[in-house]
Amino acid sequence: MIRFTQEEYQEIVRLAERDTETKQKKTQGKNVSAYIRKCVFDRNENSAAIKKELKELAYQVRKIGVNINQVVTKINAGYAVPMDIDTLIFYMKKVEEKFEYLEKNLEGRGIWPSQN
Fold this sequence. Notes:
The protein is mainly alpha-helical. Helix content is 73%, strand content 0%.
């Protein structure tokens, strides 16, 4: 038997409600027991998946960073055109999108704290 404080249990319930993998089949409602089992027994799989996602994110950010550096160099050299600035904004948004994707993915797994 495991005992939780009221606050701990409410947090577990909140995380279970958002976890799509452990929803009840028929009602699509939260399944706190399944969520706790998943957190305890799937820990290594989550860790490996997170490491893989972080490695991919780092690779993508490096690639985008190279493009950003090329555009900034051109701007600083004084021969940039308005399209270069648009390109810079585009790549900056790509970085932001990649981080938002990772954050949502980790939130869905109950690993990243929600902004709510």
